[in-house]
Amino acid sequence: MFTGLVEEIGTVDRLKEEGGSVIMTVRARKTSRNLKINESVAVNGVCLTVIRWTRGKFQVQAVEETLRKTNLGKLNEEDPVNLERALLPGERLGGHFVLGHVDGVARVTKIQPRKSSWMVWFAIPKRLARYLIPVGSVAIDGVSLTVASIKGREFGVSIIPHTMDVTTFKFLKVGDEVNVECDMLGKYVERLMRAHGR
Prior knowledge:
The protein is mainly beta.
């Protein structure tokens, strides 16, 4: 489990196809420190298991299902990625509960600079739009954010300067694809209501 508070921007060091999966080596000075094999790391919001570790680098494997649901299969070597290690018991939960189980991919439709922030708009698949509510939580590429506005299948989030500085949001362009994880509460409520015929 994660909080959606990015610890570091890492860099894709190497990509190697293996069967239908991709072995990704990530350079990350801070995140790789004291990392152990079998630990979970969120890479652009995708929960992945560390399979190898060396000083300043770690390896993870993205299998077919992960590549189908996320933007990881479109990454290239030297691309920046948001990184977060798993939440430790007893730590403050500054964002929201993020599982690292990406629901799908959204596309950047608009980036609006404001005086002290940016409003970034995304088009989300119809099947996921119902899980978004105004002032609700959403994780975009692993970043915990608040939904500021919803217009049909598009939603906007307000990005403060600090978030822009410490995440890959500073590299986003219109047309880019991002990983989206909707708040799990809405999904559980929907499932329970369906079970009771509502």
